[in-house]
Protein 1
Amino acid sequence: MEIIPAEAEAIQRAAQALLDGQTLSSVAAGMPPRERAGRALRPWRSSELRSLLISPRLAALSAYDLESAYTAARASRGDTAAAIFSSVVAPAIWPAILDETLWRDLVRKLCDPKRRITPGSAPAHLLSGLVSCGVAGCGAPLRVSTAQRPGQPKRQYYRCFSAGHSRRPMDVLEDIVIGRTLDVLENGLTPPPLEPDSTDTPDTTSELARLRDKLSRLAEQYAADDITDHQFTLATAKTRARIAALEATAKPVTMSPELREIALAPSPREMWPTLPLESRRAILRALWTIELQPYPVVGSDAGRLAFNAAKKDPAWGIQMVPTWQ
Ligand SMILES: [Zn+2]
């Protein structure tokens, strides 16, 4: 972002106002409209003002790899202010708009997680992106949108992100998914060991090597006419089946730590509401592949019947395929 000298004073005032406790949106609203060559004047957005103010350039500091350090810290909910400070490499040659100490205070204030209204780009809804549209050839993730019928309150829906094929009220879909998940967990989901240990033994490995070697020897024998078609087909089929069985048992079995924790909890049902959103999402992601079918099309009497029947059943069209079996 280029800093226009005429804006310097406005920036200094904005910084002071924020440090005095004004909100980002009110300070952004009080900024003079942005002037950019060839474009219409427009007011500052809070996010634009924030990006400008956390830039080390304002304090006449140059930074290295600021963008990626900041993005990484933000994605991991880490200390974004520290990430910004650590990317500062040297004093720059341009004049400072903000005093460095004041700028650092400001960055700490703007990066304070308690202040953050939208926590990064992390999904704010339990099932955003975790359910896919069941229409053949679509498969787009469902995201939350708000809809309102005349005379009725606004309602939030999960809706096919691509074309709106399938949608379901947010509370209905979440209740069904949570209900089935807790049923499964309460019934005792046996978690596999966190680290694959006894499954991938040297025995298995050497046996696999021997069988693969046998396959290539069979091919050589067949090429040299030492064995018949029938012998070759039979022997390779048997060997391949044995390899497949061994590979299946040797496959490392892992489970997400969040899922493991709740699976081993004395009462998954009591634990669930205490978990942060990200953990609940991790559990669902680890447990299920979820698809939502669109309601039947009302184009005929039969269509209307099917539609009405589907509408009566809250669980209609919600397909949850377990991934742990
Ligand atoms: Zn779709």
Protein 2
Amino acid sequence: MATAELSERETGNLMEKIVSLAKRRGFFFQSSEIYGGIQGIWDYGPLGVALRNNIKRAWWRTNVELRDDVVGIDAGILMNPRVWVASGHVQNFTDPLVECKKCHQRFRADQVSGPRHEEDGGEFTEAQQFNLMFKTFMGPVENSSTQVYLRPETAQGIFVNFANILTSTRLRPPFGIAQIGKAFRNEITPGNSIFRMREFEQMELEYFCRAEEGMKLLEYWKEERLKFYEDIGIARDKLHVLTVPDEGRAFYSKGTYDIEYDFPFGRQELEGVAYRTDYDLSQHQKASGKSLEYFDEETKQKFIPHVVEPSAGVDRTVLALICEAYTEDEAPDDKGKMETRTVLRFHPRMAPIKCAVFPLLKNKEDLVAKAKAIVDLLRPHMFVFYDESGAIGRRYRRQDEIGTPFGITVDFETLGEKGAELRDTVTLRERDSMKQQRVAIKDLANILVSRIS
Ligand SMILES: [Zn+2]
């Protein structure tokens, strides 16, 4: 029991360290913090936005640009409210909610441990269904006929554009439509920093096919998605596939997998991969009165395509990458004394900054000029950071903490002061091993580009 308590404290501690590092170094902040924050909303700082852009770019590249059977779209956040009636969200996108009769706090019924509020003994009300969609009004009149919703998922923007994509491209099933964008859910209990937010971003792919291909493609996409997470640096043994049981699945789904990750606060869903049959297009065809069938010229067959949906969260992936990368080890300081080093071991492809360039001393004009020339040389290829302040060991440590995989130091050897053979070479230091090697400036771009791609 003592060990269990200890490990719980340690994992809580790890999450605290990660959130504090995120704030200190500019990955993410609580939204509107100077006003006391707002629950369930987080803002990304300079490094956070770079990391999430790298994730989105990798997803788009893998799922759209490197395939000939998937195209992208970018639909509006506000849609005709009839979309959400047809999709079932107005009726069914709800969580059961109970209220404490004493303090009037509200909770998800499945997250309370008894009929009474533990804190004050107040009795809970009967559970009521609470719709998670955010509402607003369109135009100058605020009434039920002008009410619209902030989309709770990006998928419906894909389904309602299905016919437009069919006629504007010459794709034939199986093919997919991909989208990355914001979604909004009025979660009763958001939490674990950027894990469960009320405003978040999704990366969704709807892959349309014939009914007989559905189950096979469900397996295919589960494997593709696992491969993706490995490619961006998440260890395979930290990923788990949960086969969602019948009672946990939407009634129209013939199979759903959750891809889960071992977060410090427990094993939690990173992505859902669901075979949704022809439910979505059928619903929209019925409600809109517009045909969403595909006509196969060759076989003269007409059918409503089935769909397999891998649906990932940008923010959860950001958090998983930071948790996965976070390590502490021992390294010597400038005087050779061992100290604890915090390192984010991001895959170089995902690291917000790829390379930092340092002149050994900031008051030596020649060193500074040479270092700045190297920045100019590398900048067209990657995100580079220049830093001239503080002892060189401190500068390395600051980059380790934000996961910069490479550091370049310009020293007196570079200027040719320690022999002609070292002129125009620099020290290239690797973040994880802290190994340093001497490299010619003219080779830098090639070496680094091959290691970050
Ligand atoms: Zn209470």
